[in-house]
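A sample copied in:

***
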Amino acid sequence: MRKENLITYSQADLIKEISEDYPSYSEDNIRNILESLEIHVKEHLSESELEHPVQVKLFFGLSLLGWIIPATNKNCFGVDVKLDDRIRVRPKLTRYFIRKINQLATELN
């Protein structure tokens, strides 16, 4: 992927598109809903435990998986560094979701 040819859609762009699709909702209402979604997703992912990973399904075929990476000691340039427990988050796209994106892309061309 070449960065100079990258098309980026910001959250503001998406909010504007959604408000055009649903004129009964103002851009502020949509922004508040997305901010609330972000807060709840962060809260749920931060609830990950060592024995209990957390999965948040955002859309059909798109989810986030959060799990704890236990504390470790690493040697960094001859200095022992203690790393605390931390949460790792990975996105997961199903084949179905990717297939739907490809179908939409071929319909648009």
Summary: Residues 27-46 form the longest helix (20 residues).
